[in-house]
Amino acid sequence: MTPTPYEPYEAPTSDSVLLSFDGRVLEVFGYVDAARYHVREEPRLDFKSGRFRRLTIIVRSGRHHTMPYDADRLPGLHAMADLLARSVAERGRL
Predict the structure, then answer these.
(1) How many domains does the chain have?
(2) 51, 61, 76, 77: which has the fewest Cβ within 10 Å?
(3) 4 in any annotated domain
(4) Residue ranges making up the domain that contains 79
(5) Between 1 and 91, residue with greater pLDDT
(6) Has residue 32 been placed in a domain?
(7) What pLDDT does residue 33 have?
(8) Residue 1 forms part of a structural domain
(9) pLDDT confidence of residue 88
(10) CATH classification at residue 55
(11) Long-range Cβ contacts of 35-44 (<8 Å, 24+ apart)
(12) 56-83 residue pLDDT tens
């Protein structure tokens, strides 16, 4: 499935954490609590690999949210990162 900004896209980071993006809001479920990041905040995903794999959601203001991810979930997470980048760029053109 190729995600688009017009249909919800979900990508688990692990068995207990889910990222969901509907083209306007990135939501995190299952890691401590739920969190929401609006596309106007320009969220992006940053990946750290190695012994301790970490995914960090970073917004324009510098606020960030870091969580571990499973290596086998990386393709779906990269698709989420691409979708976020396209949505942020599209919003900038409006």
Answers:
(1) 1
(2) 51
(3) no
(4) 9-93
(5) 91
(6) yes
(7) 76
(8) no
(9) 92
(10) 2.30.29.30
(11) 35/65, 37/65, 39/84, 39/87, 39/88, 39/91, 40/91, 42/88, 43/84, 43/88, 44/81, 44/84, 44/85, 44/88
(12) 999 999 999 999 999 999 999 999 999 9
